[in-house]
Specification:
With 217 residues, the protein is α+β, with helices and mostly antiparallel strands. It is built from 7 helices and 12 strands. Strands 1-5-6-3-2 form a 5-stranded mixed sheet, with helices on both faces. Strands 4-7-8-9 form a 4-stranded antiparallel sheet. α2 (34-45) links the parallel β2 (25-28) and β3 (50-54). α2 packs across α3, α4 crosses α7 and α6 packs across α7. The longest helix is centred in the C-terminal third of the chain and has 13 residues, at 158-170. It is elongated, with a radius of gyration of 20 Å.
Length: 217
């Protein structure tokens, strides 16, 4: 179950609204579909966590929530429509006589967190700027590899060297670009990128919904 605390002060929530939507904050006018809100929970949980402000329009206008049914649907989304189930925390705020619900989602310790798409297929989502996007297959493969034992050192061959040389010059590369550059199959290219990410040599980044790999800072 989520945790619920009622807070009457409005100033804190007004400051949050003024910040707008971003990587760790999303506005929701209302909750009408537990599966859809599960995608937002998945996206936050797979990144750095974040907060949903329920009862706030995209333009920041406060309309308030209508009933406790929305809290129940959020709990449903987190516990029944996220895999693995997630715990969320609720805080209630009074703004101009209306109730705004703040739902805090923590970054998950077990990745990836999946939710159902419109076809009820389980997919991993990721929060990029103010949008929830489908996580790339490469990112999902990295998360799955992180669950296993500590990676062993890999042999540094031509396929790794050509990648490092390219990144030193052009900063970033997609999986498909790396496949063409090194003349590799998708499977081999993915395995190489994942192993280098596990060794903290590379990092996955998103440019909008475009997934790229760059040298780790």
């Amino acid at each position: 179950m989520g945790e619920f605390n009622e807070i009457k002060s409005k100033h804190y929530i007004q400051n949050l609204i003024e910040d707008g939507e971003h990587e760790q904050q999303d506005f929701k006018y209302k909750i009408s579909d537990a599966r859809k809100i599960a995608r937002s929970i998945s996206a936050f949980a797979n990144n750095r966590g974040g907060s949903l402000l329920i009862g706030v329009k995209d333009n920041g206008k406060v309309v308030g929530i209508e009933s406790d049914e929305e809290m129940y649907m959020i709990e449903q989304a987190a516990e029944m429509y996220c895999k693995p189930p997630q715990k969320v925390k609720f805080q209630s705020y009074r703004v101009e006589g209306k109730c705004v619900l703040k739902v805090d989602v923590a970054p998950s310790e077990e990745l990836p967190v999946k939710a159902q798409d419109d076809a009820h297929k389980w997919c991993a989502y990721y929060r990029v700027d103010d949008e929830n996007i489908l996580a790339s297959a490469l990112h999902v493969k990295l998360w799955q590899a992180m669950k296993k034992t500590t990676p062993s050192l890999i042999e540094f061959t031509e396929k790794e060297q050509v990648l490092i040389d390219y990144l030193n010059e052009y900063n970033e590369i997609t999986l498909e670009e790396y496949m063409k550059l090194a003349h590799l199959s998708k499977h081999t290219a993915e395995d190489t990128l994942v192993k280098l990410c596990l060794m903290h040599t590379l990092a996955i980044r998103y440019r909008g919904d475009r997934c790229v790999v760059e040298l780790q800072d």
